[in-house]
Amino acid sequence: MHEGAFAPGRLDWDDTRMFLAVARAGQMLGASRRLGVNQATLSRRVAALEAALGAKLLVRRTHGSELTDAGQALLETLERVETEMLAVQARLQGAGAAAAGVVRIGAPDGFGVGFLAPRLARLADRHPDLTVQLVPTPRGFSLSRREADLAVMVGRPEKGRLVARKLTDYSLGLYASPAYLAAHPAPVEPADLARHRLVGYVEDLIAAPALNYAAEFLRGWRSSVEITSAIGQVEAVGAGAGIGALHDYLTRGRGLVRVLPKLCTVRSYWLAIHENLRDVARVRAAADFLTEAVREAQADFTGR
To answer: Hey, what CATH topology would domain 13-92 get?
Structure first.
């Protein structure tokens, strides 16, 4: 029997769920963490599914797993089934259904940790049967692979079967700590920045082109302190590490000093949801809460 041929057999639908997780994660380790099972169990269940189908579904590599033709065919079939199940779920639940179960929100650390995390108690109080998971959005983050149910992204997403809406613009400016400015005269013009210690992202790990905004403040910007986290940059600047281009809304109440206040740049946050999930009660509840929370804090994101 060739690799792509499916032989009749008795399927364990739980095994198909585990295969789907591996196919989306691209590796056993990531899938096992998402499912909460160990890799040995997961590997055994996928092997059982392959035996039931009479087809090889995955090719194990050193750094992950690749789908065979049969595996790709099964993935596409399972995603169609999932789409139908989610549509039925949304239809049966109706608009007034209570939000329950697990909802996973992906967000950049500045928004997720600095803004959303302190407000999650309100979401939990509003929907006591909802379990909220907040996760960072790394490079290559994918809603299509169900790494989250909904995600906050910098800039409008351009790929995938997504429903997206703009949450808000947000502004960034240059900041330093009073202690740093006491030891280093404040810059008077942008060119003066070249004589200061600068705090920014690790250049080769910038997750999205929209985050590469330092050059908008100074052409040829070179950071002395590089941190992949927006929250980490705020902490470093606050401790006197140098001058950093920081999200204005993350600096509230931290006692930082705005330098060269006429310099500013603007980005936007977008909320993206896979089209199959937009009418599911738990996802809809989280999306509505996010929109409401951002609207209430609008002045913090865009006002000075």
So the answer is: Arc Repressor Mutant, subunit A (1.10.10)
